[in-house]
Amino acid sequence: MHHAFEFADNQHGVELSRTPAGYRLHLDETHTVDVRVLAEIDGRLRLNIDGRKIDAIIATRGDEVFIHLDGEAYQLRYRHPLERLAAQHQGGAADGIRAPMPGSVITVAVAAGDSVSRGQTLLTMESMKMETTLVAPRDGVVAAVNFAAGQSFDRDALLLSLESITA
Amino acid sequence: MKNSLSHDTSAWPFKAVLVANRGEIAVRVLRTVQALGLKGIVVFHAADRGTLAVQMADQAIEITGSTPVAAYLDAEQILKVARDSGAGAIHPGYGFLSENAGFARAVAAAGLVFIGPLPEQIELMGDKVRARNFVERAGFPVAPSAIEDDDPESFNDRARAVGTPLLIKPSAGGGGKGMRIVRDLALLDAEIERARSEGQRYFGDGRLYVERYIENPRHIEVQVLGDGYGSVVHVFERECSVQRRFQKIVEETPSPALTPELRARICETAAGIARSAAYRNAGTVEFIYAQTGEFFFLEMNTRLQVEHPVTEAITGKDLVLEQLRVAAGEALGYTQADLRTSGHAIELRIYAEDAARGYTPTTGPLLRLRAPEGEGLRWDSGVVEGGEVTAAFDPMIAKLIVHGTDRSEALARADHALRDTVLLGCKTNIGFLRRLIAHPAFVAGDVHTGFLDANPQIAAEPELAPSTLQALLAAASLSTKTMRDGADAIPDLHAALGAWRN
After folding, report:
1. Who among A14, A131, A152 is closest to B391 (CB)?
2. All structural domains of chain A
3. At what angle do helices B128-137 and B260-276 cross, to 10 degrees?
4. Chain A partners of B361 at a C-beta cutoff of 8 Å?
5. What digits encode the pLDDT tens for the residues B399-431?
6. CA gap B198, B189 in Å, rounded
7. Which of B140, B294, B342, B493 would you call most buried, defined as having the most Cβ atoms within 10 angstroms of its Cβ?
């Protein structure tokens, strides 16, 4: 599959092609569904999917696709083919310590170049009126500290990184 | 909410009210102020420039601060703005300066009217220790506890004597900040130190107190109104037991837990406490309610409460109007017997948060926002489509209030309304709220403050049906330009030969 969407921590490969009546969605090598666009106005999409009618409200921002469907909101992210290729060759996922939630840094316990051991406190952060301690996920050397005490950040911000083991 | 109120304000000492707050509560207060024909002024930090309160105010004045929150806490700056703008009164909303006695005094000293209680009443109820002692002396029930200030030397021993499980709280605290439960006395000393450091950080005050932690309690609170001339009424109770991280998320009235006798008793207790303080303003007396039917005074909030709309729904009272009236010097003008309720109301707080990830806050743009519409619905929100949820403030996006003839009608309306609410661009708790109000225990009214912790499956993301995933991937693919253009550019053989339909 050439294209993919990330949804709820899973990747879903997908292809889209034309049919006389509309489109065909290829979910894997053998599994396809026919999709017809019945209406498409101002972010509202009415589709016929293999005979099933659905109404969705869509908003996009960059690669993110937000969908309101049947009373629920979903968020998918389009993954570029190149980005996916790069991710496959990276490994060492624990190199970056990302913010589990938005908040601000209270203290930073380490500096770039410091050797740390697994479980050692790297920084303390504050979010939702509570203090959370982030610890080293493995032994290693701190490559960079991206936030100083008092600075705030969004969820998933790269707070700190360890030098890659393979490097 | 009505667009105009027929109340005569000609004798009031103010014609313009400055709202020293933001978000949905600034909008809420402005609505009543403007409906009375008074001028509504609001202060705002640049981060709030695009919000509804700023749009609807008759005058909006920018304030600055080292952080957005600091701007709204800057009493001196806000007071100067109020004087310069010709405001005759300041409504503090909730949070920020609403329970700051120094601010209330400064407002009065500047010759303006503070829409709230007397400064001494804020001081009395703002300090948990003083409040508890006051309530106990007045003859109302309080839970077993130990207060550090009584004798700091023996605090840890006295805390131990309260017995487990126990709850440590900062004396100056509120909103669940710095609270810790201890079930094992071996951890007590360490937890006391931790609570002290949190209290110091959040309130600049490390003093603590400890009280018996009541297992699976309900949080039931009572709305009160006092005019400062000795007249105090209660405006019935609110059940706020569904909480996460010690913060309310769903509130309703009447409480499904109370018999008519218990309702009368808890409501009269609250009115009695407020009466003992000769209370002026709208206020809320909070109780911890044990499964046994016992209840104990928890604290009194001397301000308008986030969940006040459910009380308004069943009583028809506009609580902001009542606050303005008594602050303007009017007497309540009615008695307890004049207050009646009709039906059942539920408030659901819509938060930018990820329930499945420990209710952690989320941020993002409000790309699409459509409030639900229908009978018995009220939508209180301070944000508009195109706005953004940032980490600068509390992540509450809106309050959905539903009113029905009974609880089951209110619940049905709530589910419909949540379904119809479109909020795209940042993860919200709407799906979670729907699962919560469909849970058999919630439907039965059988909840307690630990209900969500005890039922983590409600917060978990439900398994997705394959047909839903298909629909999502279809909609996403068609909405992704690269994919759509790619498909359109290379029509398959049949498409090329057949009749094109776009």
Report:
1. A152
2. 3-86 (3.30.700.30), 93-162 (2.40.50.100)
3. 110
4. 101-102, 127-128, 155
5. 999 999 999 999 999 999 999 999 999 999 999
6. 15
7. B140
